[in-house]
Amino acid sequence: MSTLLIRNAALLATMDDEHNRISDGGLFAENGVIMQVGPTPELPSTADTIIDAHNRIVIPGLVNTHHHLYQTLTRAVPAAQNANLFNWLKTLYPIWAGLTPEAVYVSAKIGLAEMMLSGCTTSSDHLYVFPNGSRLDDEIQAATELGVRFHASRGSMSLGESKGGLPPDSCVEEEDAILQDCRRVIEDFNEAERYGMVRVVVAPCSPFSVTPDLMRESAALARSYGVRLHTHLAETLDEEAFCLEQFGRRPAEYAEDLDWVGEDVWHAHAVHVNTQEIGLFAQTGTGACHCPSSNMRLASGIAPIKEYLAAGVKVSLGVDGSASNDSGHLLNEARIAMLLQRVSGDPAGLDTEQALRIATRGGAQNLGRDDIGCLAPGMAADIAAYRLDTIDFAGALHDPFAALTFCGPVKADFVVVNGKIRIQEGQFIDLDLPPLIQRHNEIAKALVNGERL
After folding, report:
1. Same domain for 12 and 156?
2. Local structure of 266: helix, strand or coil
3. Predicted confidence (pLDDT) per residue in 378-406, tens digit
4. What mean pLDDT is predicted for residues 157-185?
5. Mean predicted confidence (pLDDT) in 421-436
6. What is the mean pLDDT of the chain?
7. What is the DSSP annotation of 168-207?
8. What is the average pLDDT across 39-60?
9. Both 92 and 160 in a single domain?
10. Residue 362: left if φ>0, alpha if ψ -120 to 50, beta else—which one?
11. What CATH code is carried by the domain that includes residue 30?
12. What is the DSSP letter of 67?
């Protein structure tokens, strides 16, 4: 049995149902599971591993529910810097066609490491291009080596340009092969048990890159295995026009037609929805993942997060791909989400409690997990802590909890996943980042220049 003790935290924010925040707080965990949370004097005094969290705020590890890790290789590509979503995709699809298994692995490791440094302990990823022998396995390997909790979404595209879709034919797959590989990765990797480190998600890319048949068959396959469903939906007005022209339905209506609503479904973006569609999400338990920075970057719009929350819709956060953000800092997404809901004129449109709740509890809900997202007995020991004695928080210590979102984004001081320290004093304990970054940059340069990797 391995034990972990965190003590002396300036503030421990549990994010539990009672909104408990504990001064001089801490927790005790055994074998990756929290046994006790409370004031330091009430906790055991010894453990195999002890972390002194003096001058730190401790929170549950952040939960990211939408990413495209391979896109860390195509950040800030000049031709795509000022494009909307469809033109951005058309620019980058031919570049992504050059991906290799090594490129997927290295980019996933870089992207996940960046997420962890922001305090993220669980991340989903949506991989939907598989050229040159690339597989979902490549990024699962990267996540396993980093020790991060990972929801690997087996994406797909089957509707190429020759069939009226957006992606080039070189980036799409045959539908039978897609479904067969979905079955393979679920059977090989999905850890359905509580505290599972790897879960698999079935995730056709979008309504404009797959056929209705594949959407329906993917949903049926996922439900036969008891895994979750994820796709892009209602991200842009161009998508809305495409769906109306091709299917005679708005994106959310089309999703309902395809059996893509329900407790086991969460949609990325969900920006352009009306009151009836918000009601549909609430009534069916369908979740929405808010990606504020990406939506701003591509001029896609602002998702109606206040309205979602008021209606009881499950809302989580995502950094989205690192070619449309171009960052992987989930705490910053919480900050941007909070600020964006205020620009319409309501200074209390989203408060710091709500912003951090959707970054933790909301993420757990959309991923279908009851074992992460808060610090309480029986929950996974997934923890992030931030130093308060830094210039970033100077003058804000009267409310350190609010400072996490009101002040500029900071990196985590320590990160624990499954009871194991992964980051300490802002550094990975067992990852040599410089050579990984160098190789990542070499691959990115060759990829963007069209050179053989």
Report:
1. no
2. strand
3. 999 999 999 999 999 999 999 999 999 99
4. 92
5. 98
6. 97
7. -GGG---HHHHHHHHHHHHHHH---STT-SEEEEEEE--T
8. 98
9. yes
10. alpha
11. 2.30.40.10
12. -
Q: Which two tokens stand for residue 309?
A: 């929350």
User: Please, are residues 270 and 234 in contact by the beta-carbon 8 Å criterion?
Assistant: yes
pLDDT for res 421: 98
Q: Which residue has the tokens 């209506």?
A: 253
The CA-based diameter of the chain, rounded to the nearest angstrom, is 68
Check whether residue 114 and residue 226 sit in a common domain: yes
Kindly state the tokens that stand for 25: 């707080």
pLDDT at 164 (0 to 100)? 79
Shared domain for 196 and 345, answered yes or no, is yes
Owning domain of residue 243: 62-366
Q: What is the count of structural domains for the chain?
A: 2
Residue showing tokens 């409690």: 353
Distance CA 283, CA 294 (A): 27
What tens digit of pLDDT does each residue of 285-305 get? 999 999 999 999 999 999 999
Question: Which of 428, 433, 155 has the alpha carbon at shortest distance from 268?
Answer: 155
CA distances from 314 to 272, 284, 379 (A): 16, 10, 20
For the record, the structure tokens of 301 come out as 């719009």
Query: pTM of the predicted model, to two decimals?
Result: 0.98
What are the tokens at 35? 């046994």
